[in-house]
């Protein structure tokens, strides 16, 4: 079904021209010459896009645009006028207009800009459906936590841009998965604009480099490339990942592990959009989108003089903070079953159900290794578990079933007075279980592997003392 457009212009000749161009592009058109007619139509019918002249008789242009935005039911409002400049464009955007075109507009530019706005609206509609329907998976990411949904929305909003992105989060939170989603979402957007054949994977790959996994010389060669003889062992020319990424995406993980001199070289590449391989004086243009990530507190590294502030502002155009799994407790059962489904598929066995007792334990555990640790736990349950159709508490590692490891106590040969009594150890253990279970006794009892009534008896003396 073709998109339905509302055209508003008080000049009949201009309106006729716009109508002919847009109808030839396959759109369904309603055209009016007054603001009152436009508002009457908006009260009766929904449109996919509104194209309006700015200067209409009887009403200030800005006021009319604001009214259209309020009445449009989410349809983008594109302003077309023969007057104005940068200040007018900024004002229109602040009032909610989606785009701004100057008369006379070339037919091709008009259709391209209209097409982009309609494509963007379709993308936003898809995202809204994702949220309203409770869909819990987005480009491989699983979860319905509000902060995760904010990441989904951010990825959708930057799909049409090649803006540098900086991802910050603890180890195991899925930073590379987010980087891959950014790349895949952008490719989906580009192909929706130009067709599958225009964006082959060979010219738009996703490449990832862990900046903490190589020696300095090897990392420099990996990033920027080298010519034969540039250093010992360089027996042939090699293009670096900046060049190999072509027009795709380059993900630089653990960016804070770069030595300062390499940070300087990286900054130069990002500023000048060219790279010089080791042993060469020839610069090569680079086109890839740069996505960086760290599991460290980057502002601390800057204060310590270990990371350049100017490089930080260059890579941190769009920042995505990733919450740790312990702050996404509601997503843990979803992730666990998702991993169970994936492991069952890879093992070629029946998917196992996560039992309520296991869910209690999983949601009470703090997950220092985050999502990566949870996946490993589920795979371990398949490898070592004794049940064919479910995952039970006995299938989990001991540290999950027994709770936190207690603080260090005196070792063998230590002073007798430093050795804790059994009551002290029990009290600490129970208190740690209660803390991890957010004071929910049912969860704490599951962590401890005891009945809730027994836990209540263990807690009673503490309650009397407080």
The major beta sheet can be summarized as: 5 strands, parallel
Strand content of the residues, in percent?
A: 5-15%
Class from secondary-structure proportions: alpha/beta
Distance between the termini: 69 Å
- Poorly predicted sequence stretches spanning 5 or more consecutive residues: 130-135, 404-419, 461-466
Q: How many individual domains?
A: 4
Architecture per CATH nomenclature, i.e. the level-2 architecture of the largest domain: 3-Layer(aba) Sandwich
If strands are numbered along the chain, what order do they take across the biggest sheet?
2-1-3-4-5
CATH topology title of the largest domain? Rossmann fold
Number of strands: 18
Taken from the alpha-carbon principal axes, the silhouette is: globular
CATH class of the largest domain: Alpha Beta
Rg over alpha carbons: 29 Å
CATH homologous superfamily descriptor of the largest domain: P-loop containing nucleotide triphosphate hydrolases
Q: How confident is the prediction overall: mean pLDDT?
A: 82
Helical stretch tally: 19
User: What level of helicity do the residues show?
Assistant: 40-55%
């Amino acid at each position: 079904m073709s998109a339905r457009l509302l055209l508003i212009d008080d000049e009949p000749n201009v309106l006729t021209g716009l109508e002919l161009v847009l109808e030839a592009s396959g759109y369904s058109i309603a055209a009016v010459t007054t603001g009152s007619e436009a508002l009457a139509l908006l009260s009766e019918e929904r449109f996919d896009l509104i194209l309006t002249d700015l200067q209409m008789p009887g009403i200030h242009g800005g006021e009319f645009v604001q009214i259209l935005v309020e009445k449009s039911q989410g349809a983008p409002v594109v302003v077309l006028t023969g007057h104005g400049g940068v200040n007018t464009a900024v004002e229109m955007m602040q009032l909610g207009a989606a785009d701004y075109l100057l008369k006379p507009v070339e037919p091709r530019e008009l259709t391209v800009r209209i097409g982009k706005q309609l494509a963007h609206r379709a993308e936003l509609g898809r995202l809204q459906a994702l949220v309203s329907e409770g869909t819990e998976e987005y480009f491989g990411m699983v979860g319905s936590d509000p902060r995760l949904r904010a990441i989904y929305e951010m990825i959708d909003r930057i799909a049409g841009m090649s803006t540098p992105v900086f991802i910050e989060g603890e180890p195991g939170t899925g930073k590379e998965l987010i980087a891959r989603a950014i790349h895949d979402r952008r490719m989906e957007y580009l192909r929706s604009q130009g067709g599958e054949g225009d964006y082959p994977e060979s010219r738009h790959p996703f490449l990832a480099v862990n900046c903490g996994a190589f020696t300095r010389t090897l990392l420099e060669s990996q990033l920027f490339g080298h010519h034969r003889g540039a250093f010992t062992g360089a027996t042939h020319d090699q293009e670096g990942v900046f060049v190999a990424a072509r027009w795709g995406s380059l993900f630089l993980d653990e960016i804070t592990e770069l030595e300062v001199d390499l940070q300087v070289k990286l900054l130069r590449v990002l500023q000048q959009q060219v790279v010089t391989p080791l042993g060469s004086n020839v610069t090569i243009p680079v086109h890839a989108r740069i996505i960086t990530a760290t599991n460290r507190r980057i502002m601390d590294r800057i204060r310590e003089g270990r990371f350049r502030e100017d490089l930080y502002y260059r890579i941190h155009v769009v920042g995505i903070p990733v919450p740790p799994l312990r702050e996404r407790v509601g997503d843990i059962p979803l992730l666990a079953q998702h991993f169970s489904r994936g492991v069952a598929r890879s093992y070629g066995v029946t998917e196992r159900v996560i039992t309520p007792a296991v869910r209690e334990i999983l949601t009470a555990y703090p997950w220092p290794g985050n999502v990566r640790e949870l996946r490993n736990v589920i795979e371990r349950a398949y490898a070592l578990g004794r049940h064919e159709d479910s995952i039970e508490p006995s299938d989990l590692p001991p540290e999950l079933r027994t709770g936190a490891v207690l603080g260090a106590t005196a070792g063998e040969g230590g002073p007798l007075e430093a050795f804790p009594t059994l009551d002290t150890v029990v009290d600490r253990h129970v208190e740690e279980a209660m803390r991890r279970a957010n004071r929910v006794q049912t969860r704490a009892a599951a962590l401890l592997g005891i009945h809730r009534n027994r836990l209540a008896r263990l807690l009673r003396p503490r309650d009397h003392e407080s």
